[in-house]
Design a protein that fits this description.
With about 525 residues, the protein is of the alpha/beta class. It has 17 helices and 22 strands.
């Protein structure tokens, strides 16, 4: 059975779920990078929170690792590119702490509006400075939300319940979704101009890094209050400090910082800043939820191939996995066939799903096509790493669907463009969901692929079949199946011959020497 390592402290329910599902699980926390590197090769799965750093060096030593699960949202501690390159799925749990983090943002808004931390400290000191702490009402104020996804939408709902107005900036927020949430979808510059409070709920990407800087703050209202419970790198802390000192920003609620753990920071000691040590997900409920989710997701993948909340490959639900299995085999065979017969650099790959295939979750199938296509050149490639490898090589990937077919109920067609030519191969499922090739280079054929195949292109002239049979017989090679196709009488023709034994390169050269043979290639499936 698969073996999983839990390397960070998390709810005991995670280990219990792994064990209940039949997986072997070790809980070893507090390891140094060297200790983790020394043992990681023994495991199929790695469950982490934020303490473990799954660096490229660690991943390079993970010879058996198939999945890394993050009990939480942020994956700054995981080198996703390195994991993808090794074919390792990286998952997170984006929903387990959504409510908890949203509530922390709302708590920050209240704390800033009413100076609660400073007023509490003053009162504990016996000062009773009632006139010093003049707050503002939230009623009627505008909350600007940057990033209106899982957490941002919950913050919006809570803010609307407080009778605040909500403006949201999110390039992926549709007008229909904005209407359903009851928020105004706006551009960023309009949000800056309208908002009395601004709350950040976006991931840290190249596009969002430093989204709150001096230039952005200059566009905001005087007296704006800024809350960041997302990622520290979203705010340029020196620019925020300058705006607080100048009075442009009335207050800031910071749960995350550019460098964590934050033992020192330019914002510390400022009375206008409410600071917490990354507590967004720190509730008992959230910690149990994310532990349960990461264990269930990792177990589903390791046992059933179901993929949920993956950051580097398409999701495959437990319900979809059985439906996709025969198509996975077909997709891999189409890709492998094209990869083995392609002899020049790949430029473009087009995958078309027609009929019943168009109704499936096709993203994983495209990934498997790429796996098969690249496998003849790269032995370690799999459906996780294949898209990244194709991108590195500047191979253009397109995917399309068509609803109906004249002859078949379902069909997958792969078209490959190289530096020299464009060729296609198509397949279907028949006779108990078995993959079959039905078209090669626009020539119809009907062939089931076996472990050892010989692919021949030839001129459609008499005598080839007899000569080929004699040649294979003299070499002691038995023919299992023989499938032919041709474009027109006397024109281009193809043959797919399944043999009981592999055809050697020496024998393939003799086949190429036969009259009318244009090309002969031994293939393995």
């Amino acid at each position: 059975m698969p073996k999983v390592l839990i390397s960070d402290s998390m709810s005991p329910r995670a280990a219990e779920i792994f064990a209940e599902r039949g997986l072997e699980v070790d809980v070893i926390t507090g390891m140094s990078p060297e200790e983790l590197k020394a043992c990681i090769g023994d495991y199929d799965g790695l469950a982490v929170r934020s303490a473990t750093k799954a660096t490229a060096e660690i991943i390079a030593a993970a010879d058996n690792l198939k999945v890394i699960g993050r009990a939480g949202i942020g994956v700054d501690n995981i080198d996703i590119a390195a994991a993808s390159g090794r074919g390792i799925v990286v998952m997170n749990t984006p929903f387990g702490n959504s409510i908890t983090t949203a509530e922390h943002a709302i708590a920050m808004i209240f704390a800033l509006a009413r100076d609660i931390p400073e007023a509490s400290q003053s009162t504990h000191a016996g000062k009773w400075e009632k006139s010093r702490f003049m707050g503002v009402e939230l009623y009627g104020k505008t909350l600007g939300i940057i990033g209106c996804g899982n957490i941002g939408s919950i913050v919006a709902d809570r803010a609307l319940g407080l009778k605040m107005k909500v403006a949201a900036y999110d390039p992926f927020l549709s007008p229909e979704r904005a209407t359903d949430l009851g928020v105004d979808k706006v551009e960023l510059i309009e949000l800056f101009a309208r908002a009395d409070f601004i709350s950040l709920h976006t991931p840290l990407t190249d596009a969002t890094r430093g989204i709150i800087d001096a230039a952005a703050i200059e566009k905001m209202k005087d007296g704006v209050r800024i809350i960041n419970c997302a990622r520290g790198g979203l705010v340029i802390e020196a620019d925020l400090k300058a705006a607080l000192d100048a009075g442009k920003v009335a207050g800031a609620g910071m749960d995350v910082f550019q460098e964590e753990p934050a033992k020192e920071n330019i914002l510390f000691g400022d009375d206008k800043v409410v600071a917490t040590p990354h507590l967004g997900a720190s509730t008992n409920e959230a910690q149990v939820n994310v532990a349960i989710q990461v264990a269930e997701q990792m177990s589903d993948y390791l046992l059933d191939g179901a993929v949920v909340n993956a950051l580097n490959m398409p999701s495959v639900s437990a319900e979809d996995a059985p439906k996709l299995m025969p198509y996975m085999k077909l997709a891999e065979q189409l890709g492998s066939f094209a990869g083995q017969v392609t002899e020049s650099a790949l430029k473009k790959v087009q995958v078309e799903f027609c009929g019943q295939a168009s109704e499936l979750n096709t993203k994983p199938l495209t990934a498997v096509v790429l796996q098969g296509l690249l496998s003849p050149l790269l032995e370690t490639v799999n459906m996780v790493s294949a898209p990244a490898v194709a991108k590195e090589r500047n191979i253009e990937i397109t995917e399309s669907t068509c609803d109906s077919l004249d002859e078949f109920q379902t069909l997958v067609r792969l078209t490959v463009t190289t530096e020299q030519q464009t060729r296609s191969v198509a397949g279907t499922l028949a006779h108990g969901d078995k993959p079959r090739l039905i078209e090669i280079k626009d020539i119809a054929i009907d062939a089931e692929l076996g472990p050892n195949m010989l692919y021949i292109t030839n001129e459609d002239k008499p005598g080839l079949i007899g000569a080929l049979g004699t040649l294979l017989g003299e070499a002691g090679i038995n023919i299992a199946t023989f499938n032919l196709g041709r474009g027109e009488v006397g024109g281009d023709a193809i043959a797919l011959v399944e043999t009981d034994e592999p055809v050697s390169e020496e024998l393939a050269e003799k086949v190429r020497a036969l009259p009318h043979v244009v090309r002969a290639m031994p293939l393995k499936f």
